[in-house]
Amino acid sequence: MFNNSQDASISNHVNAVTGAITKTYRQSYFKRFHLKSRLADTFFTSDSKTIVIQMVMCGEMDVIAELIDRKEYEKLFEKE
Question: Does the pTM exceed 0.85?
Answer without folding.
Answer: no
